[in-house]
Amino acid sequence: MKAHDNVKRAVEQELLWDRGVDARLIKVGLTGGIITLNGSVPNGAQKRTALRAAQRAAPDAVVHDNLVVRCPEGRHCVDTELAGEIRLKIARDAMLRNAAIDVTVTDRRVTLTGMVDSPDQRDEAVALIREFPGIADIDNRVVTRLGKMERAVASSIANALLSASLQPADDIVVDVRDGIVRLTGTCASATQKEAACNAAWNAKGVRWVVDQLQVR
C-alpha cells in the first residue's frame, strides 16, 4: 500500500511541478500498477504535457488517458469557427504571413497542410496554435520546400528503399539545416525506418541525423 501511495503521490507532485499543467484540473488514480488521469483541460497541449509528466514520474507504470479537452466557457467550439480563427491567427503571424498553410478541423482536431520555405516556419505553425483554447490535437502535415541538400537526401532515401524493395518514402519528411538532417513522418515498418536513416547518414554533406520517424 505504501509503494502504491508513493507512486500516486509522485505523479501528483510531478503535475504540480510542471508549469505546463494546471494540476487542479487533474485527478490521479492508480489501480494495479495502472495510472489513470481524469479531468478536463483547456487544450491538447496541456493534455500531452500531463501525460508526459505522469510517465516521467512513474516510468514503469501504464498511463491511461481519460483527460478531456473542454470547450472554454462562452465558446461553442464549432469546427468551422475554430478553423477560421486559426487561419486568421496564422495570417497575422509575421513569420507565416505569406506561407501557404491550409487548416481543417474535425471534432476539434486540427490538420495543417501546405508548403513553407523553412523548417522554422513549419515548427512555428504548430507553436502558434499549440495552446489554442478548445483544440484537442494537431496533425502537422506542412512540408518544407526542398533545397539542394534536402533533394539530395530525399533522393538518397528513395534510392535506398527502392534497392531494398521497400515501400516508397512518400510519408517521410526531410529537413536539413547546417548539415543536420531531421527525418519526420511515418514509415510502414521498422526496416523501412532503418533504411531511411542509414541513407540519410550516407548522403554527402550530412553531419548528423535526427530520427523522429514513427512506425505506423
Number of strands: 10
Report the order of strands and helices. HEEHEHEEHEEHEEHE
Which structural class matches the secondary elements?
A: alpha/beta
Helix content: 25-40%
Average pLDDT value? 86
CATH topology-level fold name of the largest domain? Histidine-containing Protein, Chain: A
Low-confidence stretches: none
Organism: Paraburkholderia rhizosphaerae
Protein name: Osmotically-inducible protein OsmY
Domain BON: 3-71, 78-146, 149-216
InterPro entries: BON_dom, Lipoprotein_DolP, Transpt-assoc_nodulatn_dom_bac
Give an account of the 3D structure:
With 216 residues, the protein is of the alpha/beta class. The protein has three domains: 2-69, 2-Layer Sandwich (Histidine-containing Protein, Chain: A), CATH 3.30.1340; 79-144, Histidine-containing Protein, Chain: A (2-Layer Sandwich), CATH 3.30.1340.30; 148-215, Fe-S cluster assembly (FSCA) (GMP Synthetase, Chain A, domain 3). Helices cover 39% and strands 30% of the residues. The protein contains six helices and ten strands. The protein has helices spanning 2-17, 44-57, 79-92, 119-129, 148-163, 190-202; strands at residues 26-31, 34-41, 62-69, 100-106, 109-116, 137-140, 143-144, 172-177, 180-187, 208-215. The strands form three sheets. Strands 4, 5, 6 and 7 form a four-stranded mixed β-sheet that branches. Helix 5 (148-163) crosses helix 6 (190-202). The longest helix has 16 residues, at 2-17. The chain is globular, with a radius of gyration of 20 Å. The two termini are 38 Å apart. The mean pLDDT is 86.
